[in-house]
Amino acid sequence: MELVRATEAAAIRATPFIGRGDKNAADGAAVDAMRAFLGTVNFDGLVVIGEGEKDAAPMLYNGEHVGNGRGPACDIAVDPIDGTSLTAAGRQDALSVIAASDRGSMFDPSAVFYMNKLVCGPEGEGVVDISRPIGDNIRALAKAKGKEIEAMRIAVLDRPRHAQLIEEIRAAGAGTRLLLDGDVAGGINAARYDSRIDMCVGIGGTPEGIITACAVKALGGVIQGVLSPKDDQERDKAIAAGHDLDRVLHAGDLVKGDNTYFVATGVTHGELVDGVQRNGHLIRTESIVLRSKSGTIRRVVGDHLVEKWL
């Protein structure tokens, strides 16, 4: 619940900027609010995935310690707004996100910024393989889920790099859900049992992949990733850091152990959670809290007095 307070604060502070066209202002407000509330949490949190390096990100930078220092030592990943462009445009599926796990358990994403990912629900365990053609994976997962291929919906970030991938998905007979931004929400929806999305695929951020892995562990789903350097310089950097660029990374590689938490509060409305809503003197938020050790999924609805926030 302490972590929920931090994502709620970030989401609420971002709401005046929804649809205003200024994604940096929205992100800045969310970062400031999240940082302030994380400072009250009873833990020693090390930011493994934050807003960037210290010089470029004075708030919630990689390597920063947050919390009051009196609780367990944790790795944390923060994304005050996953979907800043969505927020600025007033579109759906923007989230405020925190993931936490035991100290030293999160994969270091600093060497390679992008990763090719495949995420689906537990039916995909031992069935899908990111190294196989997407059509094969769609057919195999459809069979495992007992669905017609035509009923399968595959989420993909709408980027020029995915043009061929999108063609192959449609050629296999499945439909696409093109994501403008925010592939954390896309991945989690693919792993949920009650979602209309069956699989999320394509190249997105490595940090987002680690955050998604924390949620997938609690959902019992499947995540596979392969590091995808953007150029020769990054490839050489990754090899020098000891990374095998052909290795398929699974949930246990991206975050070790069975003690992960994932918390998200909706900034704008989406399939995962509702966005922030103002009704008279109240602000309503909806959050989702996932814990891998217990396999628990909780939804938290909060009503907040406007006078305390805006």
UniProtKB/TrEMBL annotation:
Which family does the similarity line name?
Answer: Belongs to the FBPase class 2 family.
What protein does this entry describe? Fructose-1,6-bisphosphatase
Required cofactor names: Mn(2+)
Name the encoding gene, please.
glpX
Q: Its GO biological process terms?
A: fructose 1,6-bisphosphate metabolic process; gluconeogenesis; glycerol metabolic process
Q: Can you supply one Gene Ontology CC term for this chain's record?
A: cytosol
Keywords (alphabetical) are:
Carbohydrate metabolism, Hydrolase, Manganese, Metal-binding
**So where does Mn(2+) 1 get bound?**
27, 51
Biochemical pathway: Carbohydrate biosynthesis; gluconeogenesis
